[in-house]
Design goal:
Strand 2, helix 4 and strand 3 form a beta-alpha-beta unit. 36% of the residues lie in helices and 26% in strands. The chain contains seven helices and seven strands. It has one domain: 3-Layer(aba) Sandwich (Rossmann fold), CATH 3.40.50. The longest helix has 20 residues.
């Protein structure tokens, strides 16, 4: 069993990051459509666990995006992101320890937060230290209790840290962190597949 960073660094070296991006594209597009459709002013953006930076590049092209930042714990992924993109900013850091120099309007994350021993702490850290008042956090998760086909993933992928929470536990973590107007839905649900659990909320104006 290896750490998530070790596994995803190997995947980056093997070129599997493009397949990951393609597999997540429908859920990511739904999350971005929801987030960006009502933005009428310039905004700043962080992709938490950005991988090869494909979402950062996509959002960075939005006419109202003032700054787009990607942060990831894998040096291989960050090096690949930088090799593709000289217009946006990338940081190789542990998400639970890192904070941006300036807080941002939107924090996005796809398939990342459960790769921590205590993802609830990560939610709180991001809300407190990354988001501006009235800023939005939106995350997508495929590995959660109600999505039964995802249960064997730690063994299947050989990953040592994967924390399996229920939809209620994720939603409660958003509420306890100070987020309001919380919305959840499942994107791409079919047959036995529960779909991507998407959670979003706004930071209180204080």
């Amino acid at each position: 069993m290896k750490s998530p960073i070790e596994v995803f660094s190997k995947w980056a070296d093997e070129g599997r990051d493009d397949a990951m991006a393609m597999g997540h594209s429908n859920s990511v597009n739904a999350m971005l459509d929801f987030t960006l459709k009502n933005i009428n002013d310039s905004f700043t953006f962080i992709d938490s666990g950005c991988g090869n930076g494909w979402v950062v590049r996509k959002v960075g092209e939005h006419p109202l995006c003032k700054k787009a930042i990607g942060v990831d714990g894998s040096r291989a992924m960050i090096n690949k992101a930088i090799s593709f993109d000289s217009n946006n900013t990338y940081e190789c850091e542990d998400l639970i320890d890192w904070s941006p120099v300036e807080k941002v309007d939107v924090v996005f994350s796809m398939e990342v937060f459960y790769y921590f021993n205590n993802p609830i702490n990560l939610v709180g850290h991001v809300v407190k230290n990354w988001l501006k008042p009235k800023g939005r956090l939106i995350i997508g998760i495929d590995y959660y209790e109600e999505n039964k086909p995802s249960e064997p993933w730690p063994l299947d992928c050989g990953i040592s840290i994967m924390t399996r929470l229920s939809e209620k536990e994720w939603k409660d973590s958003f509420s306890k962190s100070g987020l309001v107007n919380i919305i959840t839905w499942r994107e791409g649900q079919k047959d036995k597949w529960g779909g991507t659990l998407i959670l979003t909320g706004e930071k209180s104006n204080y």
